[in-house]
Amino acid sequence: MKSKFIALTLLLSFAFTSCDTVDDLLSFTISNNASIKIKSTSPINLPSEIITPEVTTNSSSEFENNKTKASLVKDVKIRSLKLSISDPSDKTFTFLKTIHIYISTTDSNEIELAYQENINSSSNEIDLVCTDKKLDEYIKADSYKIRTQVTLKETLTKDVTVKANMKFRVTADPF
Fold it and tell me: Is the peptide bond before 174 cis (omega within 30 degrees of 0)?
């Protein structure tokens, strides 16, 4: 009886480990970029909204390159979102207090993608905290919209352009 229990435990452990291994084999990363311009006229200590141009996903070709198609995609989550200041090149994130980034499509509701509170960085790059929301419908779409909400802690003397580098983990079914 004891040996059957051990065998069953080992079999279940193997099955769960195998599922994770199969998911890893069927997963890949899609990268997208967006440019966010924070205006020098943005108020201090008050949230202000920034709408970016639509981001083209190019997901069909990404799916094809990874030998899958949109109908087989079963799980998409954001893996990382890194912000870097592209203009002015010598600017750091010391001016920024908080940032929240949202994603939406014409067919899907807006949801929060990533955020950072109480920013205390003297670097020109920061990593945001990513949500664990399911993003299948956003990445399968031809394009999506990014809305950014920022709160500044100091006055900007000129506009700041920030590049958002987003990496999405995509898992697809084999058939």
Answer: no
